[in-house]
Design goal:
The structure is a single chain. With about 160 residues, the protein is an alpha+beta fold. The protein is built from one helix and eleven strands. Strands 1, 2, 3, 4, 6 and 9 form a six-stranded mixed beta sheet that branches. The longest helix has 27 residues.
Length: about 160
């Protein structure tokens, strides 16, 4: 079977691109510790407000400039949000949803998490710069989605 010259080039370029993609994925996993997030736990979405730590959403100091921020996502609001922390604070954000899938993103940080009913999501972030950080819902959650935001002020 005769293969045309352009077909040979196309096959070579395709193989090179595929090998490059495989190498990129392997390097991401081995060198940069890229991995899929795993849930921190499970919870009954009907019993969120009666299950610790979600009984008291909000910010709690843990000592040594460390904090825990417990959030509950519900139709177009974050319960426990709009908080102030000091510069350099290490904040462990623990979140779940009581109704639909929400997303939690804080631009200019490593926070980019799905918040799913029945699942507890946790992410740790250090706020090194002063300013106001906006916590956005990045997963469409209904007609009021565009209003679902909160702020974390770093002083």
């Amino acid at each position: 079977m005769k293969i045309e010259r352009f077909e040979k080039w196309f096959l070579v370029v395709t193989v090179v691109v595929l090998v490059g993609c495989v190498v990129a994925v392997v390097l991401s996993v081995t060198q940069h510790s890229v991995s899929l997030p795993t849930p921190s736990g499970r919870i009954d979405p009907q019993a969120v407000t009666t299950t610790a730590p979600f009984t008291e959403p909000g910010l709690r100091p843990l000592g040594d400039n460390r904090y825990e921020l417990v959030l509950i996502g519900r139709a177009w609001a974050w319960d426990g949000a709009d908080v102030t922390v000091p510069k350099g604070a290490e904040v462990s954000i623990i979140a779940t949803s009581v109704d639909v899938i929400h997303g939690m993103r804080i631009p200019d940080t490593n926070v980019n998490v799905m918040v799913i009913p029945g699942q507890i999501s946790q992410v740790d972030v250090t706020f090194d710069d002063t300013g106001t950080y906006t916590l956005l819902c990045h997963e469409y959650c209904g007609i009021g989605h565009h209003q679902m935001g909160a702020t974390i002020t770093v002083e």
